[in-house]
Amino acid sequence: MWKWISIAVIVVILLVLAILLSRIRLKLDIAKHDNDDWAHLEIKFLYGMIKMNYDIPAILITGLKKGLLYRLDRNKNIHKMDASVDSGNIDTEKIKQFIHDIQVLLKGTKSLQRWIKHTLSHVTMSKMEWSTNISLADAAYTATSTGILWGLKTTLIGFASSFVRMDCTPKLYVVPYWVDRLRFTTTLNCEAKISLGYLIFSMIILSYRIWRVPGGPEAWKRVFSKKTENRQVNGEE
Questions:
Q1: Where does the pLDDT of residue 227 fall: very low under 50, low under 70, confident under 90, or very high at 90 and above?
Q2: What's this model's pTM, rounded to 2 decimal places?
Q3: What three-state secondary structure class fits 66?
Q4: CA 19 to chain centre
Protein backbone atom coordinates (compact mmCIF):
# COMPACT_ATOMS: atom_id res chain seq x y z
CA MET A 1 0.00 0.00 0.00
CA TRP A 2 2.66 2.51 1.08
CA LYS A 3 4.73 1.51 -1.92
CA TRP A 4 1.99 2.59 -4.36
CA ILE A 5 1.35 5.79 -2.40
CA SER A 6 5.06 6.65 -2.58
CA ILE A 7 5.13 5.98 -6.31
CA ALA A 8 2.05 8.18 -6.82
CA VAL A 9 3.61 10.99 -4.77
CA ILE A 10 6.84 10.76 -6.77
CA VAL A 11 4.92 10.82 -10.06
CA VAL A 12 2.95 13.89 -8.96
CA ILE A 13 6.15 15.66 -7.88
CA LEU A 14 7.82 14.86 -11.20
CA LEU A 15 4.78 16.13 -13.13
CA VAL A 16 4.72 19.37 -11.13
CA LEU A 17 8.46 19.85 -11.70
CA ALA A 18 8.04 19.16 -15.42
CA ILE A 19 5.30 21.80 -15.61
CA LEU A 20 7.26 24.40 -13.63
CA LEU A 21 10.42 23.81 -15.67
CA SER A 22 8.59 24.15 -19.00
CA ARG A 23 8.73 27.38 -20.97
CA ILE A 24 6.17 29.66 -22.50
CA ARG A 25 7.21 30.41 -26.07
CA LEU A 26 6.00 33.42 -28.01
CA LYS A 27 6.39 33.98 -31.74
CA LEU A 28 5.47 37.32 -33.31
CA ASP A 29 5.35 38.01 -37.06
CA ILE A 30 4.44 41.45 -38.42
CA ALA A 31 4.41 42.40 -42.09
CA LYS A 32 3.56 45.58 -43.95
CA HIS A 33 3.64 45.77 -47.71
CA ASP A 34 2.59 49.22 -48.87
CA ASN A 35 -1.11 49.37 -47.85
CA ASP A 36 -1.35 45.74 -46.71
CA ASP A 37 -0.81 45.03 -43.00
CA TRP A 38 -0.75 41.72 -41.16
CA ALA A 39 0.31 40.45 -37.74
CA HIS A 40 0.34 37.03 -36.09
CA LEU A 41 1.07 36.05 -32.46
CA GLU A 42 1.55 32.42 -31.44
CA ILE A 43 1.83 31.34 -27.80
CA LYS A 44 2.86 27.81 -26.81
CA PHE A 45 3.24 26.30 -23.35
CA LEU A 46 3.30 22.92 -21.60
CA TYR A 47 5.76 21.65 -24.21
CA GLY A 48 3.58 22.77 -27.10
CA MET A 49 0.50 20.85 -25.95
CA ILE A 50 -1.43 24.11 -25.54
CA LYS A 51 -1.32 26.70 -28.31
CA MET A 52 -2.97 30.07 -28.77
CA ASN A 53 -3.00 31.97 -32.05
CA TYR A 54 -3.97 35.58 -32.62
CA ASP A 55 -4.16 37.14 -36.09
CA ILE A 56 -4.62 40.76 -37.09
CA PRO A 57 -5.28 40.44 -40.84
CA ALA A 58 -5.99 44.11 -41.42
CA ILE A 59 -5.08 47.47 -39.91
CA LEU A 60 -6.62 50.61 -41.35
CA ILE A 61 -5.63 54.14 -40.37
CA THR A 62 -8.68 56.34 -40.94
CA GLY A 63 -7.47 59.65 -39.52
CA LEU A 64 -7.43 61.41 -36.17
CA LYS A 65 -11.16 61.07 -35.49
CA LYS A 66 -11.65 57.31 -35.89
CA GLY A 67 -8.01 56.47 -35.31
CA LEU A 68 -6.78 52.99 -36.16
CA LEU A 69 -9.26 50.26 -37.11
CA TYR A 70 -8.30 46.63 -36.51
CA ARG A 71 -9.66 43.10 -36.56
CA LEU A 72 -8.40 40.38 -34.21
CA ASP A 73 -8.94 36.70 -35.04
CA ARG A 74 -8.47 33.97 -32.45
CA ASN A 75 -7.80 30.72 -34.28
CA LYS A 76 -7.70 27.23 -32.76
CA ASN A 77 -7.01 28.35 -29.21
CA ILE A 78 -6.72 25.48 -26.72
CA HIS A 79 -9.75 23.72 -28.21
CA LYS A 80 -9.25 22.93 -31.86
CA MET A 81 -12.62 24.36 -32.85
CA ASP A 82 -12.40 27.45 -30.66
CA ALA A 83 -12.34 30.58 -32.82
CA SER A 84 -13.62 34.11 -32.47
CA VAL A 85 -13.26 37.50 -34.10
CA ASP A 86 -13.00 40.91 -32.43
CA SER A 87 -12.87 44.27 -34.14
CA GLY A 88 -12.61 47.84 -32.96
CA ASN A 89 -10.74 51.07 -33.24
CA ILE A 90 -7.96 52.79 -31.33
CA ASP A 91 -8.55 56.56 -31.21
CA THR A 92 -7.34 59.43 -29.02
CA GLU A 93 -10.04 58.79 -26.40
CA LYS A 94 -9.00 55.16 -25.98
CA ILE A 95 -5.35 56.16 -25.73
CA LYS A 96 -6.24 58.66 -22.98
CA GLN A 97 -8.28 55.97 -21.20
CA PHE A 98 -5.37 53.53 -21.50
CA ILE A 99 -2.98 56.05 -19.91
CA HIS A 100 -5.52 56.68 -17.13
CA ASP A 101 -5.86 52.94 -16.48
CA ILE A 102 -2.08 52.56 -16.26
CA GLN A 103 -1.95 55.37 -13.70
CA VAL A 104 -4.70 53.66 -11.67
CA LEU A 105 -2.80 50.35 -11.69
CA LEU A 106 0.46 52.09 -10.72
CA LYS A 107 -1.25 53.66 -7.72
CA GLY A 108 -2.95 50.37 -6.83
CA THR A 109 0.26 48.31 -6.81
CA LYS A 110 3.39 48.65 -4.73
CA SER A 111 6.39 49.20 -7.04
CA LEU A 112 4.62 47.97 -10.19
CA GLN A 113 7.33 49.40 -12.46
CA ARG A 114 10.01 47.48 -10.56
CA TRP A 115 7.94 44.29 -10.85
CA ILE A 116 7.54 44.75 -14.63
CA LYS A 117 11.25 45.39 -15.11
CA HIS A 118 12.24 42.38 -13.00
CA THR A 119 9.78 40.10 -14.81
CA LEU A 120 10.96 41.24 -18.25
CA SER A 121 14.56 40.51 -17.23
CA HIS A 122 13.60 36.81 -17.20
CA VAL A 123 12.32 36.94 -20.80
CA THR A 124 14.83 35.58 -23.31
CA MET A 125 14.75 36.76 -26.91
CA SER A 126 15.85 33.84 -29.09
CA LYS A 127 15.21 35.38 -32.52
CA MET A 128 15.01 38.92 -33.90
CA GLU A 129 14.88 39.72 -37.60
CA TRP A 130 13.67 43.08 -38.89
CA SER A 131 13.85 43.99 -42.55
CA THR A 132 12.64 47.24 -44.15
CA ASN A 133 12.58 48.49 -47.73
CA ILE A 134 11.78 52.14 -48.43
CA SER A 135 11.48 54.59 -51.29
CA LEU A 136 10.49 58.26 -51.07
CA ALA A 137 10.46 58.72 -54.87
CA ASP A 138 13.63 60.82 -54.66
CA ALA A 139 17.16 59.41 -54.40
CA ALA A 140 18.37 61.98 -51.86
CA TYR A 141 15.32 61.64 -49.62
CA THR A 142 15.46 57.86 -49.86
CA ALA A 143 19.13 57.79 -48.82
CA THR A 144 18.42 60.11 -45.88
CA SER A 145 15.42 58.06 -44.72
CA THR A 146 17.55 54.89 -44.90
CA GLY A 147 20.04 56.36 -42.45
CA ILE A 148 17.26 57.55 -40.15
CA LEU A 149 15.67 54.09 -40.14
CA TRP A 150 18.99 52.48 -39.29
CA GLY A 151 19.39 54.80 -36.32
CA LEU A 152 15.81 54.24 -35.19
CA LYS A 153 16.10 50.46 -35.38
CA THR A 154 19.39 50.26 -33.49
CA THR A 155 18.02 52.60 -30.82
CA LEU A 156 14.86 50.53 -30.36
CA ILE A 157 16.79 47.25 -30.20
CA GLY A 158 19.24 48.75 -27.72
CA PHE A 159 16.33 49.96 -25.59
CA ALA A 160 14.65 46.53 -25.70
CA SER A 161 17.89 44.75 -24.78
CA SER A 162 18.03 46.78 -21.55
CA PHE A 163 14.82 45.03 -20.43
CA VAL A 164 14.99 41.49 -21.87
CA ARG A 165 17.82 39.01 -22.34
CA MET A 166 19.15 38.83 -25.88
CA ASP A 167 20.11 35.22 -26.63
CA CYS A 168 20.60 36.03 -30.31
CA THR A 169 22.23 38.60 -32.54
CA PRO A 170 19.48 40.83 -33.94
CA LYS A 171 19.44 40.85 -37.74
CA LEU A 172 18.50 44.31 -38.98
CA TYR A 173 18.18 45.29 -42.63
CA VAL A 174 17.28 48.57 -44.31
CA VAL A 175 17.25 48.43 -48.11
CA PRO A 176 16.46 51.48 -50.25
CA TYR A 177 14.17 51.16 -53.26
CA TRP A 178 15.53 53.31 -56.09
CA VAL A 179 12.17 53.84 -57.79
CA ASP A 180 10.23 56.97 -58.71
CA ARG A 181 7.31 56.34 -56.37
CA LEU A 182 6.57 56.03 -52.68
CA ARG A 183 7.01 52.53 -51.33
CA PHE A 184 7.42 51.04 -47.86
CA THR A 185 7.58 47.39 -46.80
CA THR A 186 8.74 45.93 -43.51
CA THR A 187 8.72 42.51 -41.84
CA LEU A 188 9.46 41.75 -38.19
CA ASN A 189 9.99 38.20 -36.90
CA CYS A 190 10.86 37.58 -33.27
CA GLU A 191 10.67 34.73 -30.78
CA ALA A 192 10.89 34.87 -26.99
CA LYS A 193 10.50 32.51 -24.05
CA ILE A 194 10.05 32.61 -20.28
CA SER A 195 9.92 29.91 -17.63
CA LEU A 196 6.37 28.96 -16.68
CA GLY A 197 7.48 28.36 -13.10
CA TYR A 198 8.98 31.83 -12.82
CA LEU A 199 5.90 33.41 -14.40
CA ILE A 200 3.68 31.73 -11.78
CA PHE A 201 6.03 32.93 -9.05
CA SER A 202 5.95 36.44 -10.57
CA MET A 203 2.13 36.45 -10.54
CA ILE A 204 2.18 35.52 -6.84
CA ILE A 205 4.55 38.42 -6.15
CA LEU A 206 2.28 40.76 -8.14
CA SER A 207 -0.75 39.66 -6.10
CA TYR A 208 1.19 40.33 -2.91
CA ARG A 209 2.15 43.81 -4.13
CA ILE A 210 -1.48 44.58 -5.01
CA TRP A 211 -2.79 43.47 -1.60
CA ARG A 212 -0.18 45.61 0.17
CA VAL A 213 -1.79 48.79 -1.20
CA PRO A 214 -5.09 49.89 0.38
CA GLY A 215 -7.73 49.69 -2.36
CA GLY A 216 -5.32 47.90 -4.72
CA PRO A 217 -7.53 44.86 -5.52
CA GLU A 218 -10.52 47.15 -6.11
CA ALA A 219 -8.48 49.30 -8.52
CA TRP A 220 -7.46 46.27 -10.61
CA LYS A 221 -11.02 44.94 -10.56
CA ARG A 222 -12.42 48.26 -11.81
CA VAL A 223 -9.95 48.49 -14.68
CA PHE A 224 -10.35 44.91 -15.94
CA SER A 225 -14.10 44.67 -15.39
CA LYS A 226 -14.46 47.80 -17.51
CA LYS A 227 -12.33 46.25 -20.26
CA THR A 228 -14.48 43.09 -20.17
CA GLU A 229 -17.65 45.17 -20.52
CA ASN A 230 -16.17 47.06 -23.48
CA ARG A 231 -15.27 43.79 -25.24
CA GLN A 232 -18.81 42.50 -24.71
CA VAL A 233 -20.27 45.71 -26.15
CA ASN A 234 -17.97 45.49 -29.18
CA GLY A 235 -18.94 41.86 -29.65
CA GLU A 236 -22.65 42.71 -29.63
CA GLU A 237 -22.09 45.46 -32.17
A1: low
A2: 0.74
A3: coil
A4: 23
